[in-house]
Amino acid sequence: MNLSNLKPAEGSVNREGKRLGRGQGSGKGGTAARGHKGAKSRSGYSKKIGFEGGQMPLQRRVPKFGFTNINRKDYKGINLGKLQELVDNKVIESTVSFETLVENGIVGKNDLVKILGGGELKTALKVSVHKFTASAKAAIEAAGGEAISL
């Protein structure tokens, strides 16, 4: 034990919060530290998200535009250069599967993966993911590998 690791005995500090509204003698009676009048002083008050004190809120002042397609599928793109980098770092050897990419933290388990043609692939790899670009598929097969869509 030394001065750097001293601490008070357990249970000796951090008493419960101030007891509000328990009479004038407590110093916190009457308004119970809520101030006078107004919505914030009353029970049942809860501030709505985006409320600006009665001023027209930002989300109603700014016009809406555009369209969001609920059926859109977003693919996480991985370049061939990244695959070559994994081979160089001896993370993968001859096969790249979706599970391998998830284990190494490159993609999430709920992501859809698309291999893109950026970079250069020098190793023959058997790659099985959701999608490939045409240039990526050609580069994998030119390197002597195989591109399998899930």
UniProtKB/TrEMBL annotation:
GO biological process terms held by the UniProt record: translation
Region (Disordered): 1-52
Residue ranges of domain Large ribosomal subunit protein uL15/eL18 in the record: 78-147
Keyword rRNA-binding: yes
GO molecular function: rRNA binding; structural constituent of ribosome
GO CC annotation: cytosolic large ribosomal subunit
PROSITE patterns listed in its UniProt record: RIBOSOMAL_L15
InterPro entries: Ribosomal_uL15 (IPR030878), Ribosomal_uL15/eL18 (IPR021131), Ribosomal_uL15/eL18_sf (IPR036227), Ribosomal_uL15_bac-type (IPR005749), Ribosomal_uL15_CS (IPR001196)
Compositional bias ranges of the Gly residues kind: 22-32
Keywords of the record: Ribonucleoprotein, Ribosomal protein, RNA-binding, rRNA-binding
Source taxon at top rank: Bacteria
Pfam families assigned: Ribosomal_L27A
Keyword RNA-binding: yes
Family note: Belongs to the universal ribosomal protein uL15 family.
HAMAP family: Ribosomal_uL15
Subunit note: Part of the 50S ribosomal subunit.
Function: Binds to the 23S rRNA.
Matches recorded under PANTHER family: 50S RIBOSOMAL PROTEIN L15 (PTHR12934), LARGE RIBOSOMAL SUBUNIT PROTEIN UL15M (PTHR12934:SF11)
Stated name of the protein: Large ribosomal subunit protein uL15
